[in-house]
Amino acid sequence: MNAKTGTRGRWSKLLAAFVALLLLAALGLYQLMNARTFQVAGELVNRVATDEKVVALTFDDGPDEHTPEILDLLAEQGVRATFFVIGSKVEAQPQAARALVARGHQLANHTYTHRRMVFVSAATVADEVQRTDAAIRRAGQRGEILFRPPTGKKLLALPLYLADHHRRTVMWDVEPDSGTTPTPAEIVTTVREKTEPGSIILLHPWYATGRNTRAALRGLISGLREEGYRFVTVSELLALRSR
Ligand SMILES: [Zn+2]
């Protein structure tokens, strides 16, 4: 090997190492952004450690025109749930949001526009969170307003804002209808298989796409009841933890 190819070999090794490092960093960022159980700052929960057979149903997005159907079903089953609502939807459907609060459900913050909250400025984060808080307060929700990032994504600016404002992030440990379109029966089966005492179940019952989730609700609730579970809001679940 002459000196020239030797230099070239070193450079290509360095380049390969650099590319590998970049890929690792990207992979690390991706995992950090999507992590269910970790964020860089602020409190995050994805379930609660308890021996009690309690579970929290959480509904993401909305509200929309399906609110009466969902409310009736939950009333029929005697279940209170936690709704991570989108601020702009709350403003578009103020009666729906007020009805949710009036029936004893908990409203929580899922941003104003449901944008990806990664690589965003601190000002954007503050705007997304505060406008949604204001809409939730106008709907009548009192007490702590919990937060869940759209599609669970968070990186730096969002966790730092949440930590600064003593806000708790709520993720989930059961997700039967995320990113796929299972049948109602499949949703019920996944929930029964994955739920443990203290689980936080993520469901998407809104829009036309939430059809199968709405159809699964009754079976899902009665299935868990048969196994001895009772249903609480996320704040009630979090309160159980400190007992
Ligand atoms: Zn969402």
How would you sum up this structure, described in words?
It is globular, with a radius of gyration of 21 Å. 37% of the residues are buried. The chain contains nine helices and seven strands, in the order αββαβααβααβαβαβα. The termini are far apart. Helix content is 49%, strand content 11%. Strands 2, 3, 4, 6 and 7 form a five-stranded parallel beta sheet that branches. A two-stranded parallel sheet has the order 1-5. Helix 2 packs parallel to helix 8 (211-226) and helix 7 packs across helix 8. The structure holds zinc ion (ZN). Zinc ion (ZN) binds at residues 60-61, 110, 114, 150.
Put simply, the count of helices is 9
What general form does the structure show?
globular
State the CATH class. Alpha Beta
Rounded to the nearest angstrom, the radius of gyration is 21 Å
The sequence of SSEs as H and E is HEEHEHHEHHEHEHEH
Q: Give average pLDDT, whole number.
A: 94
Which residues sit in consecutive blocks of at least 5 with pLDDT less than 50?
Answer: none
CATH topology: TIM Barrel
Overall tally of domains: 1
Class by SSE composition? alpha/beta
- How many angstroms does the end-to-end distance come to? 72 Å
Total strand segments: 7
